[in-house]
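Hey, sorry to bother you again with one of my protein questions. I've been staring at a protein lately and its backbone has me curious. I owe you a coffee for this, so here goes:
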Amino acid sequence: MPPKRKKVEPKAVKPSDIDPKRRVAAAPDVFYDPADPGHRWERPLQAPGRMQVDFEERIDFRRLHEYRLARTRNALAASGLGALLVFDQHNIRYISSTVIGEWARDKLTRWCLLTGNGEPWVWDFGSAARHHKIYAPWLPKNHCLAGLAGLRGAVSPKVGLFEDAAKEIKDILEREGVADMPLGIDVVEPPFLFALQNLGLDVRDAQQVMLDAREIKSHDEITLLNMAAAMGDGVYQDIYEALKPGVRESEIVAMATRRLYEMGSDCVEAINAIAGERCSPHPHNFTDRLIRPGDQAYFDIIQSYLGYRTCYYRTFTVGSATPAQIDAYRKAREWMDSAIDSLKPGVSTDRVVQAFPKAQEIGFESEMAAFGLNFCHGLGLGLHERPLISRLNSFKDSYELKAGMVFAVETFCPAADGISAARIEEEVVLTPEGAKVITLFPAQELPIANKY
């Protein structure tokens, strides 16, 4: 007979073993802080396949849900607000982990409420609320409600839907004990705001609170952002091979859009395609212009994988490159490398911005006119999060960079020929040692597509 195994009693956990600030116990491991980003800086940044597998850890979605909600709770607790009422789709997804697709992006017809004492409430478009009750078990079933207010004015305020929704919200605030505290709102239709104020609610700005919550990305968020960047790497290989005389800007956009959806993108928000005489000044769009021999051409891939976005520029020339094109690219790359070298935790954003040229150096009369050409912007569920570093704002409102931030670094340099321009963008993860670039299509030197 096999020997009897010695019975091992589980270790008892005493209250003194638990740090209430972090909910961490000496043992066992089940006590943890859901707001801990769980960074694994000792390991390479992951970019796994899209499938879930049983033999290695990839994205832990429940851990992602808990992290985002915990970060929101902490930001709310530090804000002096009693609750957050959000209409911004990125904020709704961050708090509730619900989404119904890009259709809802500009409708202002979904909203989410979180008090400091409760679980998230979600008002969604018609049957989507019933769908959440079935497929979003992390939310209490009675917290998923059908809601409609104005659809950006399509439903007249005379119908009374704004007043009904405001009363419903105030009732919840009273039940959860925060009706006498300020209510934070991010973006809202004016009649909804007026209805809340008419009920005596003190409405404040919540967007800064939500950006506080969203600025540090967890291990899972960084992995999703890296996977999205890898999709951009592949599309740029396709663009490099397809960029030939006779191809239209719009054809490149169509090809890239198709490839991204084939790879698993959930939203191709925009793809800029600019070539030839359209390069300077930057028009931020695409047309049906035909690519010609010797053109400089640059592209921006703005898309998301499971909500997490890319903003990823690359510049090429077609067939050959002129000295003016090469020189512009060299300057744009020097500004890029200087900015990336300055990115370290603890560094102030007003120091980073000194790596970028003044507006007049690239032919603009003011920093407002040149905004968006040489700057940094945070990436996450939104395209523009923290940090946002530019000569327009960073000397007036600087703050320290932190490990776990993920953002894009963009540079632009017009060429001396008056029509060409270089545009480069790298996405970086800020580690304790500095910036780790995650956009990997080669960009140290000007790529020449289909060289003659």
In short: The mean pLDDT is 94. Residues 219-449 form a domain with the Creatine Amidinohydrolase fold (CATH 3.90.230.10).
